[in-house]
Amino acid sequence: MAASDLINLSGLIDDAKCFALVRQHRWPEGVRCPVCDSGSVIRDGCDDTQPCRQRYRCKACSGRFDDLTGTVLAGHHQPLRVWVLCLYFMGLNLSNRQIALELALDTSDVQAMTEQLRRGLVAKAPAVELQGEVEIDEVYVVAGHKGQPAAVAKRGGSGAAASWQARRDGARWRRTSHPSSA
Ligand SMILES: [Zn+2]
To answer: What is the largest CA-CA distance in the chain?
Structure first.
């Protein structure tokens, strides 16, 4: 598909609905102040250049914020609808390169966007360093289903008691004690 078709697609996306999506996702029970977490918040006009981006004022701490304040979506030069489309394409398992083609962006820009979106649409999480060992153990647990599904189900299937910690320890035990059991 030609990139120009998808530029048109981007143009068809409704900005108002994109901001409504962020609000719904971020504040499912009503707007709260990102500074003091008060729910005593009043609307305070809209962004000067993005009329669908609602501004707010907190009555508790007098702080001012808007729909995107404190999120990975704030302060970027891409319009929100491009982020939403990017998220949609990620859901279709498109590669960064494919998404870049579809949205007529640089691959490096798309890579930065998808990395941020994977941390959450609106949650600005601190950069988390995953521990390689943990990742490998988790994969190993899944792989264990193939050989001994009943044993794995027993270890991992009983709700809260079968904590991730227990499964991780189980996987580690199996890996070190039964390297050839599968
Ligand atoms: Zn506040």
So the answer is: 65
Cα of 115 to ligand 1 centre, how many Å?
29
Q: What is the pLDDT of residues 48-90, one digit of tens each?
A: 988 999 999 999 999 999 999 988 888 667 889 999 999 999 9
| φ/ψ bin of 70: left (φ > 0), alpha (ψ from -120 to 50), beta (otherwise) | left
State how far the Cα of 85 lies from the Cα of 8, in Å rounded to an integer: 12
Query: How many Å lie between the centroid of ligand 1 and the Cα of residue 45?
Result: 17
Kindly calculate the radius of gyration of the chain based on its CA atoms and give it in whole angstroms.
22
Distance 69 CA to ligand 1 centre (A): 13
Distance 165 CA to ligand 1 centre (A): 37
Contacts with 155 (C-beta within 8 Å, 6 or more apart), sequence order: 162, 166, 167, 170
Residue whose token pair is 């193939």: 146
